[in-house]
Design goal:
Number of domains: 3
Distance between the termini: 51 Å
Largest sheet: 9 strands, parallel
Strand content: 5-15%
Radius of gyration: 22 Å
Bound molecules: S-adenosylmethionine
CATH topology of the largest domain: TIM Barrel
CATH architecture of the largest domain: Alpha-Beta Barrel
Mean pLDDT: 95
Number of helices: 20
Length: 485
């Protein structure tokens, strides 16, 4: 039997089934230990020092204990701390991105995904480089600067060379004042060599959802294809880091397995990355299984309510305070609104989950034939941007960090240094101004400029504030773009 060791590079040892079961048993036994709960909540709280805030985070055991407790007063406290942490490290900024589906060819048999090999009634499509260009122009015309590319796993149709070609094409398109400045990549687990090539192609985060940390279920949910190999999939982030990728994004597809097991596994994965590579995950995503062609989410009997989902999100925020958290358009406006107060720092907007879903379609037309899942939040990017601002969040199109070499632990040090208000805040305001000037509706523009004016006052350094103000004027009065600190 495998023994738990967060420093091990073997999947069964760093995501250890025995340790997870023990954790869940321990959490059940101690769930009403008020003194312990208080101690854990106190540990989670951000502490203000001379150089900004610091946070200790929580272990998988502590996080599991909070999840097990069902006192409404404790839950309120968890929510309050989650919001404090979000504001301490990420301020009121929300980073915006969109997915770009390149190909739905796939050789895997994932039972929850419509792209599975045996699905014969979904048309298979792979974008040509010309089509990639058109999609990118459509995305730039909406105002996007940051994409997450998505593809099924198919070594013949979507080899790494195809993905690399697409990344090159995406970065090469400069339409009007637009450009895509950060391409995050969500493709199947691959080799160290391929991760090195992705890194050389200038990718931002490498994202790979674990789907489930429960090995036995994983094997059943991925019955065929290369993704069936649980160890290879689970150890992918270590290979990515070995290949030089500093920023990796974790995620669980909630609904497949028992959420308590998943939360413990997810936090253990973050602990493992920290223990081995000295830096935790750059982001964590919290997708839930959605209806899709050939897929009925009710067939998975581990679906979670909106309340449980919110609680899990907030606990992740407490456990890994420096990690960005992502919520996609799988969720409704209502759910997204709530989660934005509980630690989410990135959202997608105006998303299409079909291959070739952007170019040639108006804001309210969406092709469904190659769609990966139903999109619940179908608002345009302009509507999402306005909604965020009306709720006090600054939509940020900033991509400065990795372009300035602030990846991995350097990004984490920025987070911990208290310099975010002198760096990320003006960057958010400058990129928001680009959006307002080049793409926003008059209504959004009015709300936005008011926000930029107010938020600029919050930049602590006089020097930074005056440079940012000058750049903002430059953006309004010229075609000069892409200022950053
Ligand atoms: N093929 C790659 C892989 O295996 O990791 C790329 C990822 S796929 C395009 C993106 C993610 O969509 C998957 O990791 C999965 O978690 C999620 N997904 C698949 N089917 C879904 C569904 N029916 N509802 C919600 N999310 C789904």
């Amino acid at each position: 039997m495998a023994i738990y060791d967060p420093k091990s590079l073997k999947a069964d040892e760093f995501i250890n089934d025995g340790e997870i079961r023990d954790t869940l048993r321990w959490a059940e036994e101690h769930k009403n230990d008020a003194a312990l709960i208080r101690e854990i909540l106190d540990k989670a709280r951000p502490v203000k020092g001379e150089r900004g805030y610091t946070c200790k985070g929580l272990t998988h055991r502590e996080a599991s204990l909070l999840l097990e407790n069902d006192d409404p007063a404790v839950l309120e406290e968890i929510y309050k701390i989650a919001e404090e942490i979000k504001l301490a490290f990420y301020g009121n900024r929300i980073v915006i991105f969109a997915p770009l589906y390149l190909s739905n060819y796939c050789v895997n048999g994932c039972v929850y995904c419509p792209y599975h090999l045996k699905n014969k009634h979904i048309p298979r499509k792979k974008l040509t480089q010309d089509e990639v260009r058109n999609e990118v122009i459509a995305l730039q015309d909406m105002g996007h600067k940051r994409l997450a590319i998505e593809a099924g796993e198919d070594p013949v149709n979507n080899p790494i060379e195809y993905i690399l070609d697409c990344i090159k094409t995406i970065y090469s398109v400069h339409h009007k004042n637009g450009d895509i400045r950060r391409v995050n990549v969500n493709i199947a687990a691959t080799t160290v060599e391929n991760y090195r090539r992705l890194k050389e192609a200038g990718i931002g985060t490498y994202i790979l959802f674990q789907e489930t940390y429960h090995k036995e279920s994983y094997l059943k949910l991925h019955p065929t294809g290369p993704k069936h190999d649980y160890d290879y999939h689970t150890e992918a982030m270590d290979r990515a880091m070995e290949g030089g990728i500093d920023d990796v994004g974790l995620g669980v597809l909630f609904g497949l397995e028992l959420y308590k097991y998943e939360l413990a596994g997810l936090i253990m994965h973050a602990e493992h990355l920290e223990a081995v590579h000295g830096v935790g995950p750059h982001t964590i995503s919290v997708p839930r299984v959605k209806k899709a062609d050939d897929i009925d989410p009710t067939a998975f009997d581990n679906g979670i309510s909106d309340e449980t989902f919110a609680k899990i999100t907030a606990i992740i925020r407490l456990a890994v305070p420096y990690t960005g958290m992502i919520i996609s358009t799988r969720e409704t406006e209502e759910v997204r609104s709530k989660l934005l107060r509980l630690g989410i720092s990135q959202v997608s907007g105006g998303s299409r989950t079909s291959v070739g879903g952007y170019a040639g379609y108006s804001a309210d037309e969406r092709p469904h034939d190659t769609e990966q899942f139903d999109v619940s939040d179908q608002r345009s990017l302009d509507e999402v941007v306005r909604w965020l601002m009306e709720n006090g969040h600054i939509p940020s199109f900033c991509t400065a960090c990795y372009r300035e070499g602030r990846t991995g632990d350097r990004f984490m040090s920025l987070c911990k240094s208290g310099q975010i208000l002198n760096c990320c805040h003006p960057n958010a305001l400058m990129t928001l101004t680009e959006y307002l000037e080049d793409y926003a509706s008059p209504e959004t523009k009015a709300v936005g400029y008011k926000m930029v004016e107010e938020e600029l006052k919050k930049v602590p350094s006089d020097k930074v504030r005056s440079i940012a103000a000058r750049n903002i004027e430059d953006i309004k009065n010229s075609n000069r773009r892409d200022f950053r600190f």
